[in-house]
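User: Show me a protein chain along with its predicted structure.
Assistant: Here is one chain, sequence first, then structure tokens.
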Amino acid sequence: MPDQWIPPVPAWSADLGDRSSLAIAYYGVQHHTGDSRDSEASFALLRHGPDAPDYIERGRFNDLAGFVNEVFVCYWRNTDGHARFANQSAFARWFADDALLSGDVGVWVEAFRIPMTRFETLFSTQCPAGAARLTDNPMTGPIDEHGYWGGMRDRIAASDRDELSSALDSAPSIADQTETRGRRLVLAMPENLCLIRSAQDWSVCQGDERDSYLRDVHPMLRKGMTFLMENPAETGCLTCRFIEQLTDDGGTADKTFGMAYFLDMSKLEAWSKNHPTHLAIFDSFLSLAQRLGNEITLRLWHEVAVLPPDGTRLEYVNCDRRTGLLPFLGLNRRSGYGA
């Protein structure tokens, strides 16, 4: 942080109390046909049972193979409850059924037990979303640690004593793993992979602000997310999904979020600070914000996790070989959550 720093605009972080960790899981259904019944069935299973997620957000995106994916972002207050859900719930039994290997969908799970020292959030307003929905008093701030390059690292407590860097110079590959359909594959997580969920909410924007966002900012955002998705070697971003957020019943919500895995936090920082695709996003938003000043109602927020290999599950069932982290990470002979 620069000396005597005063942020140019206010921002807040989620106040998650004194918990030591939290559980977040991304569940995806990759449609190989146009039938969405599997998504609705899995969503119903996710919502029920004694250890069901405390909060779920729903979305949809097209992947590199051209398939529509329904995704459910699930949050638990209690990591033990998440572990029980992952191994004992009706959803877990459905996911473990080998009938999925020959079905018309691929199903994937990317789930994490994240130490709070490796997690940070930032919000442009005091409207909670994501992990902030896990607490009754969701926000703290305004905070000082934002608005300058390096603010993200300052908000991650573990960075005080650790560079949180990857031991890998470039993404590992399983190029010899040519066929993934009809198979259940569990991947090994490298140390310090960095996951960002960066969200945009224009549901309350009206008039000129709404028109300007959709005309000037949103296209730059989509272009940047597409660049990350298509250029892992240049950016260090192993996979990026630009997701249209949906309501619980599958309707549109005027919200989107990018979900991206970078090889480590320094790769995310480098793209954010230097790359033309991100600078175009930043400049288009800054122009809007400067014109509207305190009248801006657009809600922006993100959560970033530097992931430890323990407490992680990366599992893909009957998925296309280009799905998620499948093209990059080696196979792990373990199954389940950590060891």
